[in-house]
Every structure is written in structure tokens, then in C-alpha cells.
Specification:
The two termini are 39 Å apart. β5, α9 and β6 form a beta-alpha-beta unit. The chain has 16 helices and 12 strands. This is SIR2 family protein.
Length: 434
Amino acid sequence: MPVLSDPIITELLGSIEANRLMLLCGAGLSMPSPSNLLPAWRVAELCYEKRRDIEVLPEALRYDLDALAGHFHAAGHFKDQFLGLVPWAELLGAPNAGHAAVSDLLVARAAHSTLSANFDPLIEIWAKTRKIDLRGALDGAQATGYSAATNPLLKFHGCLDRDRDATLWTQRQLGEASVQQRIESIKHWLSINLPGKDLLIVGFWTDWGYFNDVLADAIAVGGIGRVLVIDPDSAEGLQRKAPGLWGHLNAGTQFSHIVGSGDEALDQLRTAFSKVWARRFFRLAQPMAPAIAAPDPSDWLGDELYDLRRDAEGVPYNRAARQKGPTPEAAQAALAHLLLTQANATREGAWYRLNNQTIRVVQGGGQSLSTVRERYDEPTSLASPDYVICAGAVDLSLPAKVIPGGAGASVVRPTKGGSAKWLTLEQARAELGI
């Protein structure tokens, strides 16, 4: 059963449209498969067990990461001893559906920004494997500076990959001058960017005092629009765990809590965003083919929709979609989809099958066919269709049959664009009968 109801999805999509959606995520985001990262209590236990042969620690510290780190901080051995106990390798893994959703929404500039308490770099890893330089900002100045590449990811507790020694593990660190400077920078950025936003919270629920103060200040200055918390815990459990945070978020806002999985909710939102994208994409072709019904993306899966977005942008599958919505340049690609649907081609993911031939549609954007094909340097492990319709491209080269693509054991070296036969839309209409 979906975590988010249709009315909630509609509200969140409206927030995206208005550039009001801000995400707040924490360690809970990284626990679902395939990430399977450790919860805080388990990290504390591993640190405790690693230390026990050297020092007998109070039993109360065994499962309390904040208190355990605070013990070493008070003794003056936070950096030289505690950080050496941290099982850093266990804070790495494969991005899950929640990380993919956060990263995609930031890269496409659908989410205004993301505040993250995650030390792990899994949101960034998803983007970097798709050739996007998404960097986690450690303060407000970086959040502003990095926004040229993507919308901001502000990691207010620190990052495993960036300045690891400066990560926040205990509230005792808040009195350090360098930490105070970072906090003031973060407060300043949030005081500008948080008021008026709608806040979607997943995997984060704690009473870290300085962050509560930031929320209280933002509410006092300009208010927060809607607050939606996705968490497996009950409302009573959340209020008991972090009464301060609960109180601030309930003060003068539209607050609601849904019991459920954060990564599933984020994946559902990402899929809904992609369906809106697809509907707008197909609508681009309507003036050219008003009598042809547009494909209905309602039953498309998330990965299929993401491939459609990349194809419609003219982006290979080893790179990321970057547009919040389709551009007019994609109109001919949309028309190709309508023509294939009219010809009774069956859909296979984001591709089609017609007369036992697989067909992929990509945007040519007014470029030459050879230029676009050269850009499609996709891994050879990816399946290749029989045809690629490069809609909007112009063929300025020799006929494709004179220059074979080459594949497998062929004496012709495989070219970029795979073994498929590449056609302009005009050529495809003639050759495929669409």
C-alpha cells in the first residue's frame, strides 16, 4: 500500500511547482536496503566494544552515541581517540530508492534544497555515478556556492568524505569556536531560505538544540508552510523522543505525520514528479498531431519514467536527467512517441516494439545525427535497441548503411551509440511506416 495518499502527493507536487519543497533527512534514510547502514545505537555499540579492552566505560554509554562521543570530548580525546573507534566503512553502501529520489530532485531542481544530518555520502554517490558534481555543503556559504551545479544539499552534521574530523557526534562540540562559526553560517542560510517553505521530513527526529533554535527562528521570522513527517514511529513516540522538535514544528504550521517508510515515500514522490514530467512531454506533440491520443504514463514504473526523461532530454543512460520540465526542443521526440503508439507499437519500458524490432526515441535538438550519436557513449553492458529515432536531428552524413556501427566480434570497431541503426524522425517514418 502506498505511503502517500493522492491528496498528499498533489500537495507535494504543488510545492515542487512553486519551488517551495525543502527536504530534511537523517540517518533513517540510509537504513533500508540496499544501503543497510547502521543505526546510531549500533555505531555506539561497536565503538564501545572496540574500546572496552583499553578502558572500562560506563554501561550507560554502550548504546548512546551522543553520550559516548561526549565522554571522549570531555576527556580531551575526541579527535585522537573517539574518531578512531568509528566504523567508517560501515557508513558506506549502495544508494537506495530514497537517496535516488533526493538526488534526482536536487539535480532536476525540483526540490528547493535538502537539509541532511547524514554523515554518509550516498545522496552524492547516486549523482556522481551519473556524472553530476553534487557536493554536500558543510555551511551556508558552501550551500550558496555549490548551487551552480545542483540545488543545495546542506549537511549540517558533517560528511564522511569532506572534513571528517569536523563532523558533529555530540552536543558537547557545539561550544567549540569552529563549530560555532559553522552553526552561525548555517543559521544565516536557513534564516533566508527556510521561511515560507514546505518541509518534508524523513529519517530525522532528534532534539539537537541548535537545530531546534534555527527552526524556531525561521518560524518566528517568516513561518514554515506545511510540515509533513514520514516516520515508522507513532506520533506519541515522536513526541516522546524529541518534544522540542515536535513543539516547534507544530507551532503555527500545517503539521501532519504519516507512519511509514521514508525511502518508499520519497520514491513515490519522485515517480509522481516524473509522471507529471511525462504528461507535459507528450503534450508538446499535441499541436502537431491533435488527433492522436497521447500515451498515458499512469502505469509506468519509476525507472521507466526516468529513462524517458533522459531520452527526452537527449541524455545517455550513464548520465542524469537535469530538467525540471521538458523543453520545446523535445516536441519532435514527443511526436515520435505518439506516432509509435498510433502504429500499435507495444511499450517495453521507455522503448517500443514494432514488427519485432525494438525502438528507442531520443531528442536530437536540431543537431546533426552523427553529433548526437557520438554523445551516446553508453556502457556496452546496456542493451541496445534495433533502432534509435533521433527526433529533431538532421542527417548530414552518408547513409547509415554505408557506415556500419559494428558490434561484438565484428571487424568494425563498435561506435558510440551502440549497434542500433540511428534514424531521424523523417527517416524513421519512411523506414518503419509510422
